[in-house]
Amino acid sequence: MISSDNDTAAESSEPARPRSAERTWYSSLHWMHWMIIVGSLMVTLYGWYLTTEQIEEKGRLRYERSTSRFLNLVVERLQRYEDALWAGAAHVESMGGGVSVEEWKDYAERIGIVRKYPGINGMGLIHYVPAEEFEGYLAEQRRLRPDYEVHPPVENSSEIGYWPISYIQPLRGNQKAVGLDMAHETNRFRAARLTRETGRAHITGPIVLVQDAQQTPGFLFFVPFYRETESSMEFEGLVYAPFIMKKLLEGVLARENRHVRVKIFDDEQLIFSDQNNGELKTDPDPLFQSEASLPIYGRSWRFEFESDLQFRHDVSSSQPYFILLAGGLVDTLLLMLFVQITRANRDARQQAKELRQAQKQLARANDELSQFNYRASHDLVSPLKTIRGLCELVGMELASGDTDAVKDLAQRIRQQTERLEKLVKDLLDLCRVDRFDTQLAPIDCEKMVSTVFESLRAIIEEEGVRTRLSCRLTGAFYSQEVRIQQILENLVSNSVKYSHPEREEKFVEVRISELRYGWVRIEVEDNGIGIPDEAKERVFDMFYRVGNSSQYGSGLGTYLVKKHVIALGGQISLESSPQGSCFTVDLPNGKANDG
Ligand code: ADP
C-alpha cells in the first residue's frame, strides 16, 4: 500500500490522532537544569541544617557554661566559708583553745562575718564537753552569762558527752542557738562526730535551723579545732556556721544572669528550688535538661538543671528559616528561568524546523515549477504540432478529393483539440489549487458523487462501467466543496479510464464512511487494470503517467488530488493489484475538529 500525506509517504491508513496534550513544562526541562535545581536545593537544605546545628550547638555551649558556672560558684562559695571556718579554728587554737565569749565576739566583728560572707547566718563555737567536765563547763560559761543553759536534755549525754553551742556571733537572730546541744539530733550529731573523727570539714544533712522563722532547709558547716597537749592534739570542739540554703544561693544566683533553673537535692530531699523565682519562666518543653552530682563536705548534692523560656527565646534564631526562604526563592527563580530558557529554546528549534521545512518546500516547489514549465509547454506544443500536421494532410486530401480521408482527419483533429482542452483544464485547475476559497460547508456526499457520475456519464457508458455508491455518514461532513468534487472527479474518471477491457463486469465503487476522531474516509475502488508495483510510488507525482497506459491523460490528475488532500489536512493512500485499484482518502471533518 502506498500512502501520501503532507508530502511524506507513511505506512498508515489510520488518521493521525489529534494531539491532545502538549509536553508538560517539567518534562521539557533538560537533565542539567534539574541537576542545578536539585543541587541548589541540596545546598539550601545543607545550609539550613548547618545553621540549625550551629545554633543548637551554641545554645548547648551556653547552657553548659551556665550550669558549670553555677556549680563552680556554689563550690567556690562553700570553699570561702570553709576557709573562714578554718581561720576561726586557727584563731581558737592560737588562743590555746580557751576563747571567751567576748573574745569570740571581738574576733567575729574583726573578720566582718556577715558583711563579708553573704548567706552565712553567723559563726559559732561548739565545745565538746565530756560528761564528767560538764559541771565545770557550765560554771565557766555562767561566770559571764548567768542564764546560760545547755538544751535540750539528751538521754545518753553521760556516754557521748555534751556538744553545746557555746557562742555564736552575731548574737542577734541567733539567740535560740546558744546552748543548743548538737547531740540532741542525729543529723547534726552525725556530722559533728564525722568532723571530729576525720579532722576535716563537714556539713549536716538538711535541717531546719532554729534561727529560720520560715522553716526552710538549711545546714550546719563544721570544722574541728584542737588543743595542743604535750603528747598530742586533743579535740576541743567545732567552729560552725549555720546556713539557710535559700540565702546562701541567693548570693550565688545574684551574680549569675542565667536562664537556667535549678533544683538541689540532698539524698532525695529537695533543699533548694528556684521554682518560685518570678524572673525565670518555666519552659514546658525545656530545650536542655541535665543533672550533676557533687560531693559536698561529706554529703552528696544532686543538681537538676533545665533551661527556661527566656533561654529558648535567646538562643532561637530565624536565620535557618531565612536561609530556607532565600534558598527556596532562588530555586524557584532558577526553575522559572530554566522553564523560560527551555521554552525559548524549544520555540527557536521549532522555528528553525519550520524554516527548514519551508526551505525544502520552496526548493520542491521550484523544482516542480521548472518541471511544470517544461512539461506544460511540451505537452501543449505536441498536440498543436499534431493538429498542424493533420491540417496540412487535410489540405492535401481535399486537393485529391478524398472526402472520407478528410472526415477521418477531421475526427483526429477533434480528438487532439479535446486532449488540448483537457490539458489546459487540468493546468488551470493546478494553477488554482492553492487559491480556492477555504470556506467550510456541509457536503451532501450522495448528491456530489451522483453529480460526478453524471458528469462522466459519456465515458462511463462508453467503457461500460457500473457505478456504485455507499455513503455511511451519521452526521454532517464539513469540508471545502470544490476540492472534494475535484478529488472525486479525478479518482472516478481514472477508475473508468483505466478499466480492464476484458473484464465482464467492470465497476467503480465510491464508499464514504466515518473514522475515529471525527475523520471521514472516501474510498474509490475499481476492478481496472491496476497499477504496477514499480509505478505506485510515483503515481502522485506531477505529469507522471504509467508507461503502458493506452488512454490519453495529462499525468496531472492524481497530483492534483494529492494537492487537494494536503490542502484539506488529510492523507491519501493507494492499494493496487492486477485485479484493480483502491484509492483511500482520509479527511478531517472540519465541523468535528472545530467542535
Ligand atoms: P492521467 O491524466 O494520465 O490519468 P493521472 O495523474 O490521473 O494521470 O494518473 C497517473 C497515472 O496513474 C495514469 O497515467 C494511470 O496509468 C495511473 N492510474 C491512475 N488511476 C488509475 C486507476 N484507477 N487504475 C489504473 N491506473 C491508474
General description of the model:
Helix content is about 50%, strand content about 20%. The chain has helices at about 30-95, 100-110, 115, 135-145, 155-160, 185-200, 245-255, 310-315, 320-400, 405-430, 445-455, 455-465, 480-495, 535, 555-565, 590-595; strands spanning about 1-5, 125, 165-170, 200-205, 205-210, 215-230, 235-245, 260-265, 270-275, 290-295, 300-305, 440-445, 465-470, 475-480, 505-515, 520-525, 570-575, 580-590. Helix 9 (about 320-400) packs antiparallel against helix 10 (about 405-430), helix 11 crosses helix 13 and helix 13 runs antiparallel to helix 15 (about 555-565). With about 600 residues, the protein is an alpha+beta fold. The structure holds adenosine-5'-diphosphate. The site of adenosine-5'-diphosphate (ADP) has 23 residues, from helix 13 and helix 15.
**Ligand identities:** adenosine-5'-diphosphate
Major beta sheet, strand line-up: 1-17-18-16-15-13
* Mean pLDDT across every amino acid position: 87
Uncertain segments are: 5-13
| Head-to-tail CA distance between termini | 32 Å
Helix amount:
40-55%
Number of helices: 16
SS strand fraction: 15-25%
Largest sheet at a glance? 6 strands, mixed
Number of strands: 18
